[in-house]
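job 3f2a | input accepted
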Amino acid sequence: MGRERPPGKPAEGPPLPVIDRALTYSEQEVLRLKRFDQMSEGELEATRRLLQDFDWRIAERPTRRLQPARAGAALDLRRSFRRALKHQGEFVRLAWRERKTKPRPLVVLADVSGSMERYARMLLHFLHAFAQAQTRQGLRTVEAFAFGTRLTRITRPMKRRSVDAALLEVGRLVKDWSGGTRIGGSLHEFNRTWAKRVLGRGAVVLLISDGWDQGEPELLAFETERLQKSCHRLIWLNPLLGTPGYQPLTRGLVAALPFVDDFLPVHNLYSLEQLARALESLPERGGPRRSGLAKAPA
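job 3f2a | predicted structure (298 res):
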């Protein structure tokens, strides 16, 4: 299979047809369930347009700051005393406080190696749509990285309003697009250089990869465990998981999966919708987490 051109490079051949944004309900249903790697160029373009209309949100986390509330676990003594002064010192109505909440930061590590070439472009569109949705909500909570044989930070391009301009800049930044895969080495670089900067405040990490790793599985297992312990929740998104009969049997996945909190498919529009719901309903306390002592897939 030939190497895919990085995003943003000019395509050869006739221009793609313009897709009508107003798709019928049946057309949308077909696109929702069709695999990304089986879509035509026209269907991929229509799917990218649908992604821009997604309402992307992520679960909120409690902060240390308190705010006034109608009821709560914390009594606001200062406001309660001020109210009592209006009633000759009688505590007619107590004042309460509750913790403020903020959306959790989201950190995305996207595999753009050769084995992911059929999915990488669409997943970058998903990442751009999520980042833009956060911007519309007045938030700056998305950090993005691409990796093949090395790690590249692509947060700034994903914040550009134009998806074409964003992908063009990603294509210039990522030098190992559609090359080999060293997941363990890339995670090592992230844990060493970026983890302390971007994993604070209960961050959620999305690791997007098919798991085909050319490195040592022991390194991948060690760095995955290290990453899991540094974030609120580690979610591995695998496009192959939506393939009938697929089993995660590669050495890298067998080593890493015991340290992954959620292992989810990301092969069509429906799976992205399910991911959106999962991100919006994450448990506040993190929920049960896998341990390295858990049995790996046979």
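job 3f2a | The radius of gyration is 22 Å.
job 3f2a | closed
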